[in-house]
UniProtKB/TrEMBL annotation:
Protein name: C-type lectin domain-containing protein
InterPro entries linked to this entry: C-type_lectin-like, C-type_lectin-like/link_sf, CTDL_fold
C-type lectin domain: residues covered: 10-122
Entry-linked SMART domains: CLECT
Source organism, top-level taxon: Eukaryota
Gene3D superfamilies: Mannose-Binding Protein A, subunit A
SUPFAM superfamilies: C-type lectin-like
Taxonomic source organism: Sinanodonta woodiana
Transmembrane segment boundaries: none
Length: 126
C-alpha cells in the first residue's frame, strides 16, 4: 500500500498504513524516512474513519505519548492532546506511554511504546 488521500473527520489526509510491525521510535523513524510522521487523531469521528481505513488491522500506533510526563498526553509536535478514549483507558498498565486505535471500542487505548505494532504515517506540510 502507498500513501492515499483519505477522508478523516473533517479533513482529507495523505496517509499510509504500515503492516511491518515496529516499536514506536522505529515507527516514527520509518515515517520520517518517507517524509511523513506518525498520524495524530483525537476525536471520535476521526477515530471512526481511521478504523474503517485500517480494516482488520488492530492495535495500530499513533503519534502521541505521555512518556515525558505521566497522564500528560502530547503529540509528536509537543502539543497537548485530549484523545477520545475507550472506556477504562488510559490505564497505564505496566507503564503504557503510547497510543493505538483498537477495535475493542470507539476510542483509543494506551499501549506500550515497546510493542511491535502496525502504524500509520501521515504526510503533510509542517
Ligand atoms: Ca502512561
Ligand atoms: Ca491501556
Amino acid at each position: 500500500m502507498d500513501y492515499k488521500n483519505v477522508s478523516i473527520g473533517n479533513s482529507t489526509l495523505c496517509i499510509k498504513l504500515h503492516v511491518n510491525n515496529l516499536i514506536f521510535n522505529d515507527a516514527m523513524t520509518m515515517c520520517e524516512s518517507e517524509k511523513a510522521k506518525l498520524i495524530v487523531v483525537t476525536t471520535k469521528e476521526q477515530i471512526a474513519d481511521l478504523k474503517t481505513f485500517v480494516g482488520p488491522y488492530d492495535w495500530v500506533l499513533l503519534g502521541m505519548s505521555d512518556e515525558a510526563v505521566e497522564t500528560h498526553w502530547v503529540s509528536w509536535t509537543g502539543e497537548d492532546v485530549s484523545p477520545y478514549w475507550n472506556s477504562g483507558e488510559p490505564n497505564n498498565m505496566n507503564n503504557e506511554d503510547c497510543i493505538c486505535v483498537s477495535h475493542l471500542g470507539p476510542g483509543l487505548v494506551d499501549t506500550s511504546c515497546y510493542g511491535y505494532l502496525p502504524f500509520l504515517c501521515h504526510k503533510s506540510f509542517w
